[in-house]
Structures are given as C-alpha cells and as structure tokens.
Design brief:
By secondary structure, the chain is an alpha+beta fold. It contains eight helices and five strands, in the order H-H-H-E-E-E-E-H-E-H-H-H-H. Strands 3-2-1-4-5 form a five-stranded mixed β-sheet, covered by helices on one side. Helix 6 packs across helix 7.
Amino acid sequence: MTNTFPFSFLESIATRFQPPAWVVSETQQRLVLFLNHVLMQEKEAQNRLTRKKGSVVHIRWGLFALDLLITPAGLLDKASPDVKPDLAMTLAVDSPMTLIQSVMAGKSPPVKIEGDVQLAAEMGWLAENLKWDFEEDLSRVVGDIPAHALADAARRVARAVKSFLATAPGSPFQSAAASAVKAAS
C-alpha cells in the first residue's frame, strides 16, 4: 500500500492541462484587478509602487507566467509581452502540493529573484505586509454582522482542514505539522 496524498491526481492534471489563450488572458486580467483592489486598500503599498512606476515585474510558476507593469498611480497593469522585465521572480517549487504544504506550514515558498534589487525589496515588503481584508469586502455585500459570522466560520473551517491534513496518514502535511509543533515547544 502506498502512502500518497489523496488529491495527488490533481498535480498530474495541473502539469499537463494547457488552457486556451483567452482563458489565460482573462484569468490574468482578473488577477490584476484583484491585486489592484488589494493595493487600493493600503496607501503605503501604492506609495511604494509609485516610486518604481514604469518598472515591469515578470512572475513565473511552472507554466503560469505574468508580466506586470507598475503604473504612475502605484497600481498594476498587464505589461506587453515583448517588454523586457526589470525584475524576474520565479517560484522554485514545481509541485502545487509542495507549495500548499509550504504555505500551510507558515513558510514562504522559495523564490528565485533576478534583476532590480530595490524593486525586489519593494515586492518583498508587499508580500510581507499587504493583506486582503476579506471580511471588510464581504461586509459591503451582506452587512457587518453576517460578514463577521461568515469570516469567523471560514477561519474555523480553515483551522479544521489544516488540523485534519496534518494528522491524515500519509499526508505530506504531516511532517510540516510535526515541525511546527516541535518549533512551538
């Protein structure tokens, strides 16, 4: 009997499936809109990006790649594919399961960085300090009290899933949970 993660088949699908170009483009555009939404909630993030306006950041993870142009307003736009990036950031983890394991363990995934050091420092600051306030956005749709209750329920479900994955036999999350418990002792 092999000890494999129950959803390991998703990993093989993710590495072989190539969506149509229009799906990739629309997904990237939605991601840019979401990132700008989060950036607009944090004025300091916009100020930091304004200092690097006109710079292009290339982000790559396996088959996924995205070129982002920093606008004068401190927001992001999709860059033209023929523009040379000022900074290239590549996630050094190929497996989606390894990436999830790293995030669940509270660690940042390894990233290979090439290019503008100051721009890399700004991106690092954004990664550490920029957070999406899901509850605030939800409250605009359903009101404060239901949003708080739903966000609290989501946090409890996330903790339960993390706990379950950490204790499931053969789970790749088991070693990460053991490391976290050992570090907390």
